[in-house]
Amino acid sequence: MNLLHNAIRSSSNRLMRNVHPNQRLRSILSVSPSYRILSTESTPQTSQSSSKPLFQTPSSGLVYGKLFGITKNTLKSDVLSLLEECNLSKDDLKVDYNPSFSPTGMMVQFPSRSAYDAAIRAVSRKGRLYRLERADHASWDSIQPYGGKYVLLQGIPTNATLEEIERFLVGCEYDPSSIHLFSRQGASGPTRMALVRFLTPTAAMSATILRNRGFCFNNQISMHVLQ
């Protein structure tokens, strides 16, 4: 019996020595579940992607600004010429008027931050009478776009009616339902005005050329196209 036991033990030792190390590891893992869980737990990976700075200024997207220093005679074409490097159109410009319809500045919508920076350089270089400051989207939205179709009539007699205004504008291409009469306080007292919408910017400009400084009763009427 001792001989048989020694023979079996010797054979078992030879088999264990011939087992591949990976087979031994699998054997251990199958026996010890807790060891298998610890050994296969994933190691947190370090992200290799670089994140952008938190306060980095975007290089694209709409940017708004307000151009100060314009007068009632400043045209959108004048501003487009000043900012010719910024690839703007007339639709990117809105004149900001006060309640008496005197311009306080011109809002500008830039296609990108780089276009705004180019405008700053252009104003500094060739527009020293102007000043450009940043604005926001809400300021842009709050301004009504007149688009050269509206004409402001000033100096209207206090007793003038809509019929007198229509008679004054006879032959002009405008919307009669758009006539809006109102008063504003001027330096010498209340001034009566009317705002009229014309069918096209060309019609508005033609009416201004033909009827400006004309008379309604005994009052001379001044006309101005709103940008």
UniProtKB/TrEMBL annotation:
InterPro entries: Nucleotide-bd_a/b_plait_sf (IPR012677), RBD_domain_sf (IPR035979). Gene3D superfamilies: 3.30.70.330. GO terms for molecular function: nucleic acid binding. It comes from the Eukaryota. This is RRM domain-containing protein.
